[in-house]
């Protein structure tokens, strides 16, 4: 089996380090992984991580932001709030490293400063919720930030605590993926108007 070529140059090194950090942080948590572990997995000298990222905390934040960008890149532009939420759910299932690293980071409580520097998906979802409220498709007496926060809490909670939630609620007979989708659909239906808005 041919030996894997070591990354060369700043861009290759950073890409390889971010990929290695994503996998290790997702599986072991930020606190359970050293810079040397990441360097060994990435096939680079650990000094290069300090040179290009400065610290493990900067690497953690850039890893989270890369995973967030991958998630958003998977989605594409949705034509409605509901479609955007459905696309986000599908992307979340495909890119499980995003929520795994996020959950481990929050549970470890070891981050310093910001979890991420910005939240483009949340900003987009809130804008779309406001737009659909103006068009009469979503209940108007709910804060759009609360609507998005509720859906995010449900989607992320279902992923992180799936086994507990489905077992406790006695929802283990069917396909877990279908059950989770039905739970999210139930929440989405609660925020919609019962009647279609006038043309």
Structural commentary:
The chain is an all-alpha fold and 199 residues long. The protein has helices at residues 9-28, 35-42, 46-53, 56-75, 81-94, 96-108, 120-134, 144-160, 162-168, 176-191. Helix 1 packs across helix 4 (56-75), helix 4 (56-75) crosses helix 5 (81-94) and helix 7 crosses helix 8. The longest helix is centred in the first third of the chain and has 20 residues, at 9-28. It is globular. The model is unreliable at 194-199 (pLDDT under 50).
Topology summary:
Blueprint: H1 9-28, H2 35-42, H3 46-53, H4 56-75, H5 81-94, H6 96-108, H7 120-134, H8 144-160, H9 162-168, H10 176-191
Helix pairs in contact: 1-2, 1-3, 1-4, 1-6, 4-5, 4-6, 7-8, 8-10
| Radius of gyration, taken over Cα atoms and rounded to an integer in Å | 20 Å
Shape summary? globular
> Based on helices, strands and strand pairing, what is the structural class?
mainly alpha
Total DSSP helices: 10
Q: End-to-end distance, in Å?
A: 65 Å
Q: Tell me how many strands there are.
A: 0
Helix content: 55-70%
The mean pLDDT is 87
Strand content: under 5%
Order of helices and strands: HHHHHHHHHH
């Amino acid at each position: 089996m041919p030996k894997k070529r070591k990354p060369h140059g700043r861009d290759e090194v950073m890409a390889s380090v971010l990929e290695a950090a994503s996998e290790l942080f997702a599986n072991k948590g930020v606190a359970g992984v050293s810079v040397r572990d990441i360097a060994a997995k990435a096939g680079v000298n650990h000094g290069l991580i300090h040179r290009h990222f400065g610290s493990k905390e900067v690497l953690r934040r850039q890893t989270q932001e890369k995973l967030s960008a991958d998630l958003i890149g998977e989605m594409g532009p949705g034509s409605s709030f509901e479609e955007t939420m459905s696309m986000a759910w599908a992307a979340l299932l495909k890119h499980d490293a995003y929520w795994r690293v996020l959950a481990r980071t929050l549970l470890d409580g070891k981050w310093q400063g910001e979890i991420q520097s910005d939240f483009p998906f949340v900003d987009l979802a809130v804008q779309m919720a406001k737009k659909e409220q103006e068009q009469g498709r979503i209940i108007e007496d709910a804060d759009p930030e609360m609507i998005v926060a509720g859906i995010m809490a449900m989607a992320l909670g279902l992923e992180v605590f799936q086994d507990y939630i489905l077992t406790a609620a006695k929802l283990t007979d069917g396909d877990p993926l279908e059950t989770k989708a039905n739970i999210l659909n139930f929440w989405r239906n609660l925020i919609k108007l019962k009647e279609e808005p006038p043309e």
